[in-house]
Amino acid sequence: MTVSENGERAAALTLTSALVGGITVVRVTGLLDATTRDQFADYLASEAEEHGPDMALDLGGVTFMDSRALGLIVHHWQLSTNAGGKFALIGVEYAKTKVMWITGLAQRLPLYDTIEEAIAAFG
């Protein structure tokens, strides 16, 4: 648990989104694990329903990711592509998302260093 200077508990996961060139970019900050899975799942489903299947997840602010969170990301990747959309992951750091490399999914998922690169790949 993280506690701020005024003694309040810090949120384990913060999710924000913006439309960039018609693509939903979700910024993820904090933990992606069993304690935040439902919050993450609900947010992604809501964004996809409201804005369509083109989605990019900015994972630059992720402090840790477990296999359940990775499974959820793969699920949304599949939903997006099956609906004719495109999907991208941005700012993925090995040290915080090791499970992506351990499973071999880092070689299969569409990874980009920057939002600009991901948006350009959407064409």
In short:
Helix content is 36%, strand content 28%.
Which properties best describe this structure?
disordered N terminus; alpha/beta; 4 helices; 123 residues; 5-stranded mixed sheet
What report would you give on this structure?
It is built from four helices and five strands, in the order ββαβαβαβα. The protein is globular, with a radius of gyration of 14 Å. Helix 1 (about 35-50) packs parallel to helix 2 (about 65-80). The chain has helices at about 35-50, 65-80, 100, 115-120, and strands spanning about 15-20, 25-30, 55-65, 85-90, 110. It has about 120 residues and is α/β, with parallel strands linked by helices.
| Shape designation | globular
Number of individual domains: 1
Main beta sheet:
5 strands, mixed
Mean pLDDT: 91
Output the strand order for the largest sheet.
1-2-3-4-5
What is the SS-derived class? alpha/beta
End-to-end distance: 41 Å
Approximate helicity band: 25-40%
Give the H and E element order: EEHEHEHEH
